[in-house]
Write a sequence for this structure.
């Protein structure tokens, strides 16, 4: 047997013989003061345990003497402490979320060294009893802002429903729609309308269908040919109804051709192949892409460009907007698509919710301006009061600290 | 046969000969595996070994062998890759075939995964824990008791599946309504907190930054740009006032900010798509054809 | 009954979850509802599969154009389904060798894993790789600097495309540091893109709030479909 | 036929071919360029590096094979970096197609870090359906959804997860995502409401829309393949032993094709516009 191993074993034997701890490695010193307190704003099932680091737990030691902390708990009336969790070194707190509301608990924290060495336990001074709260005050301001924003949406929808006329600014892109249909008429070539590739339950598709009613109205009026390939059968149904109504509204129900609105396929790339094939054959003079688009946006816009069409697009898909903006003549960006649809449809809930969102933007803009001014003033003057107001605004009103 | 037909036939023949020569000489597209015994933790049970894919350069080592099924798989994967790439030449039957396979496989894949992870794990194991523990999921914790409240989601599931029946499909709307209502509620909270409140919180910046060395011009300018940018873009998306005069000017600034944003998005998207193509071409050249060896997996072969 | 009850269910579920967020005792309700939601999400996969089969079988029985491909889809679907549900080629897990079904459904070497690795993966990955080529073609034929907006967009794209490769360092290394394309790209992303996207994000946030409210209040019922 | 006509009628398949070649040629010749990590990448690295050894890190791999080309270099670099720091790793995915991609990461641990033991140092929780719904649950009670690991072993029987209540116990969330559900959802439903630290790695398509969350709600972000390459370099700078490991440099070698292809795209945009404006001027003149 190697000599040193022999000595170690001997030493271990002597130690255990003497009734001392059988642990070979040196035990770390215990953590400092341990505090346990009820966790605020919860259902009374959690306690936060905090401790001061063991003096042996240094941030960048040559050799780690503390590798973890073990948290032990004893419920009043129980005999022994049981282990409830472990935290790594340099950590100062633990959340015990396995408590029963109303029960009393005692806590201990033990510093663990390498090879299972344990420090003596440091205990929290007094027992702690978790209490249940009925309202989560950390969410107070969040609730207030929810009420303001949500309330104004509901208020404006009700206002619009009651017959009050709400104004939305004209959308520049819609003029481009008129111009494009006019040019297609002059050239005697068809207009192509693509309502996106999502189903009818998507907001963007719905907005696209509303814009289609405008386009169809114009083609009916100018007697231009309209072509609407769809990617979903339900969208086809909705588009047919819309186009028929638009032709009726323009006094040209006879000119409505049901087959001009048709379903191709649900498959993304299959649909694109179908649409672009049709574009190359029929060379439409105006192409409209309004709705939800994914990777196919680029292929569509590129083909439209190749056949020399005027292209107007509208989508709320942020990742596809760059391609539409770069390749189309006019693009309705994000919310503009919804605004355009609200503007055209005049439906009360659409207009009302637009107005409600505008209130939210004013609220947001005001908070930003006030906050920035406060923060700038706080930097320039370094006044304690300003800093307090600012941190209340950012951490409590806008943050998670609540009331 | 047309001229392009001849050219294609000739190309195919050349490619075929090339593949044959490669196969006959150094080999290509072979997949090696190593059988690693699995230690069964229950005594008396038959143990088995797990085949783990290894680099071809380890072919001489113990337990390393060619896996013919995975070799066929790699060839299949290469063919599928080529079928999809053929769409670049034009829509063709090979592409359509690959697409049809893709659609079928992915629907099947999602369904299988949904069954094992959603229905068995989260529904069956709560309704009949003992049965599941003794059959499909022996590792289900003993602490899992029967939770009869899960009869409710079971009911919703059945309602949802009613959509498949020719009559009474409207009943599925009840389940759908629960689905939609829950999503709406949770999204409302999440988006208002993260996308509205927290975004405003992050935009509250001091317009004058004083660092350790006094006034920090570039940081101040940066903060100012962010604040002006956010406010002017919000103005652009403000629909209650017409874009005239000052508002018009500010919203014009806003659209320029948006254009820079889109330009950045454009650049990043292009970057991403190219990376995907590079990965596919690398698969063809490295894993299948063995003409390059960027990860030194066949070093010395 | 057909329309009112669903509206009521949606409204009650949504508003209860919103209210529950503010009461500590009920905050876990959201969790519970989410588990149910997760189960329904799994059921939705079944619906999706069934729908696909129905559409394609219809195509086959009508002998519509391309019905052969529809048959391929159906075969691929059922093959994947059977292989996955039966856990074909899956060894039991090492901990529970006596339970034949205890292995992972997509264990390396199993039949389901084979389909994933050698069909699903190459097909999906290549599908999106195609776009690299379409972008190149669009770059040549469609992206025109036709107005101020497009000029700004394309110039930004130019800086980002150069700046996000070694060319940015190599070609613009002689410029003042702030104008070197790799640093400029950083500024664009961290300042301009951040501002623009933040405004878009705030807009989307408000949009989601108002859409959710409209759904819960029954103003927007598009999810109920058009058929009565 | 004059030049403009030639370009206008040019078959786009020639452009496709150019693009394929510009990617293939650097690939075949193994073209590589040096990378110097940007401040954002260094932020991400220090988020992992400055955690004490053995911290709990959630590895949320929310991507599919379709975006593997962009994201697996990041995922692999994250795994290696965490393994050097001896962090405890908890893998899960919200994408049905993500399970085997977690296995790829675990294969790296098995191959390169023999000290890593399953159930003690890392665990594979696998996939659960439900998107953000899953996140909402695991921030409160992980075992309600994940009672077992991917092999069906009860989490109560694994040393690593025995005392795991929810992911609020994590010291860091590392999320690699290709869209929905992904980084945005982790930020929205986990990091923001509970002030958890999170770093992300995403595709080029979704990266720009995540910048607004930096740094308040998202500590750092690896955006697309370039950031993956820089991060690989940043980890190599700390652990030079990785220099010898060719598989740890997937992102770095992708930057060769990337450079040539970017140049091609720029060239095509410029050429297209030159022809366009030349034609327009000719049109005006005549």
């Amino acid at each position: 047997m190697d000599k040193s191993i022999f000595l170690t074993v001997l030493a271990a034997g002597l130690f255990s013989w003497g009734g001392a701890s059988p642990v070979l490695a040196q035990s770390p010193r215990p953590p400092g003061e341990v505090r346990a307190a009820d966790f605020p704003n919860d259902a009374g099932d959690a306690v936060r345990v905090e401790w001061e680091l063991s003096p042996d737990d240094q941030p960048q030691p040559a050799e780690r003497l503390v590798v973890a902390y073990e948290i032990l708990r004893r419920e009043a009336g129980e005999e022994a402490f049981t282990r409830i969790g472990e935290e790594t070194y340099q950590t100062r707190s633990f959340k015990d979320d396995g408590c029963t509301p109303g029960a009393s608990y005692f806590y201990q924290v033990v510093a663990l060294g390498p090879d299972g060495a344990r420090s003596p336990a440091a205990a929290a001074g007094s027992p702690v009893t978790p209490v249940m709260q009925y309202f989560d005050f950390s969410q107070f301001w969040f609730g207030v802002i929810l009420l303001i924003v949500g309330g104004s949406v509901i208020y404006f929808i009700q206002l619009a429903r009651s017959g009050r006329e709400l104004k939305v600014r004209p959308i520049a892109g819609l003029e481009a729609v008129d111009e494009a249909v006019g040019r297609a008429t002059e050239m005697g070539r068809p207009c192509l309308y693509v309502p996106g590739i999502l189903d009818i339950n998507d907001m963007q598709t719905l907005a696209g269908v509303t814009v289609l009613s405008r386009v169809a109205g114009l083609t009916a009026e100018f007697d231009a040919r309209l072509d609407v390939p769809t990617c979903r059968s339900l969208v086809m149904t909705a588009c047919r109804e819309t186009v028929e109504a638009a032709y009726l509204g323009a006094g040209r129900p006879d000119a409505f051709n049901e087959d001009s609105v048709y379903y191709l396929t649900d498959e993304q790339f299959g649909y694109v192949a179908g649409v672009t094939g049709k574009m190359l054959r029929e060379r439409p003079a105006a192409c409209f892409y309004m709705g939800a688009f994914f990777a196919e946006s680029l292929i569509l816009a590129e083909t439209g460009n190749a056949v020399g069409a005027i292209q107007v697009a509208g989508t709320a898909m942020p990742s596809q907007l760059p391609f539409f903006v770069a390749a189309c003549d006019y693009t309705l960006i994000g919310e503009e698509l919804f605004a355009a649809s609200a503007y055209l449809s005049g439906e009360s809930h659409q207009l009302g919710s637009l107005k409600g969102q505008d209130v939210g933007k004013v609220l947001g803009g005001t908070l930003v301006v006030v906050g920035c001014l406060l923060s700038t003033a706080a930097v320039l003057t370094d006044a304690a009061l300003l800093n307090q107001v600012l941190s209340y605004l950012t951490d409590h009103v806008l943050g998670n600290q609540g009331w | 046969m047309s001229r392009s037909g001849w050219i294609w036939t000739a190309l195919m023949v050349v490619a075929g000969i090339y593949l044959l020569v490669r196969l006959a000489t150094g080999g290509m597209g072979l997949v090696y595996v190593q059988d690693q015994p699995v230690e069964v933790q229950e005594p008396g049970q038959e143990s088995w070994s797990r085949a783990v894919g290894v680099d071809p350069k380890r072919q001489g080592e113990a337990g390393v062998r060619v896996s013919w099924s995975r070799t066929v798989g790699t060839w299949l994967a290469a063919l599928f890759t080529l079928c999809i790439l053929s769409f670049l030449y034009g829509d063709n039957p090979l592409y359509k075939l690959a697409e049809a396979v893709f659609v079928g496989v992915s629907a099947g894949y999602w369904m299988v995964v949904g069954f094992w992870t959603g229905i068995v794990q989260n529904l069956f194991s709560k309704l009949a824990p003992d049965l599941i523990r003794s059959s499909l999921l022996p590792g289900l914790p003993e602490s899992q008791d029967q939770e009869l409240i899960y009869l409710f989601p079971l009911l919703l599931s059945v309602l949802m599946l009613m959509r498949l029946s020719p009559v009474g499909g409207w009943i599925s709307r009840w389940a759908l309504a629960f689905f939609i209502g829950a999503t709406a509620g949770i999204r409302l909270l999440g988006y208002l907190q993260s996308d509205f409140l927290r975004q405003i919180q992050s935009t509250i910046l001091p317009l004058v930054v004083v660092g350790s060395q006094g006034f920090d011009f570039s940081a101040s300018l940066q903060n100012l740009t962010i604040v002006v940018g956010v406010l002017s873009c919000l103005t652009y998306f403000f629909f209650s006032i017409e874009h005239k005069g000052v508002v018009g000017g500010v919203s014009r600034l806003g659209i320029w900010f948006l254009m820079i944003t889109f330009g950045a998005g454009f650049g990043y998207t292009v970057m991403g798509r190219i990376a995907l193509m590079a990965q596919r071409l690398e698969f063809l050249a490295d894993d299948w054809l063995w003409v390059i060896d960027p990860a030194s997996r066949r070093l010395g072969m | 009954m057909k329309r009112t009850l669903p509206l009521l269910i949606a409204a009650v579920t949504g508003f209860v979850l919103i209210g529950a967020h503010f009461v500590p005792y009920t905050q876990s309700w959201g969790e519970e509802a989410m588990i149910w939601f997760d189960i329904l999400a799994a059921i939705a996969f079944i619906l999706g599969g069934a729908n696909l089969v129905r559409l394609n079988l219809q195509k086959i029985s009508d002998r519509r154009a391309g019905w052969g491909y529809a048959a391929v889809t159906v075969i691929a679907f059922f093959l994947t389904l059977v292989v996955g549900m039966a856990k074909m080629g899956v060894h039991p897990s090492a901990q529970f060798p006596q339970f034949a079904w205890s292995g992972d459904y997509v264990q390396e070497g199993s039949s389901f894993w084979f389909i994933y690795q050698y069909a699903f993966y190459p097909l999906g990955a290549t599908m999106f790789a195609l776009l690299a080529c379409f972008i190149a073609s669009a770059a040549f034929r469609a992206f025109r600097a036709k107005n101020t907006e497009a000029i700004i967009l394309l110039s930004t794209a130019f800086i980002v495309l150069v700046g996000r490769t070694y060319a940015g360092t190599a070609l613009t290394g002689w410029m003042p540091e702030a104008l070197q394309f790799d640093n400029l790209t950083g500024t664009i992303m961290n300042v301009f893109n951040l501002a623009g996207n933040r405004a878009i994000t705030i807009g989307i946030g408000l949009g989601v709030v108002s859409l959710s409210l409209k759904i819960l209040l029954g103003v927007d019922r598009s999810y109920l479909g058009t058929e009565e | 036929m004059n030049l403009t006509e030639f370009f206008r009628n040019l078959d786009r398949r020639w452009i496709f071919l150019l693009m394929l070649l510009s990617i293939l040629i650097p690939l075949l010749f193994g073209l590589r360029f040096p990378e110097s990590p940007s401040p954002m990448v260094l932020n991400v690295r220090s988020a992992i590096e400055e955690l004490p050894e053995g911290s709990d890190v959630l590895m949320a791999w929310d991507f599919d094979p379709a975006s593997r080309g962009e994201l697996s270099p990041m995922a692999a670099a994250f795994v290696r970096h965490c393994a050097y720091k001896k962090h405890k790793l908890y893998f899960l995915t919200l994408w049905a197609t993500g399970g085997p991609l977690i296995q790829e990461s675990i294969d790296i641990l098995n191959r390169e870090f023999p000290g890593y033991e399953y159930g003690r140092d890392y665990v594979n929780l696998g996939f659960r359906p439900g998107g953000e719904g899953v996140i909402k649950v695991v921030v409160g009670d992980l075992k309600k959804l994940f009672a077992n690991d991917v092999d069906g072993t009860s989490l109560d029987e694994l040393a690593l997860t025995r005392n795991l209540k929810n992911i609020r116990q994590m010291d860091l969330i590392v999320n690699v995502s290709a869209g929905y559900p992904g980084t945005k959802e982790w930020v929205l439903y986990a990091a923001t409401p509970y002030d958890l630290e999170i770093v992300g790695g995403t595709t080029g398509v979704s990266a720009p829309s995540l910048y607004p969350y930096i740094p308040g709600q998202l500590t750092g972000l690896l955006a697309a393949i370039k950031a993956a390459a820089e991060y690989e370099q940043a980890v190599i700078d700390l652990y030079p032993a990785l220099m010898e490991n060719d598989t740890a440099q997937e992102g770095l070698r992708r930057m060769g094709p990337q450079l040539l292809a970017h140049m091609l795209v720029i060239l095509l945009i410029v050429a297209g516009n030159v022809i366009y404006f030349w034609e327009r001027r000719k049109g005006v003149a005549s």
Observations:
- Chain D has ten helices and six strands.
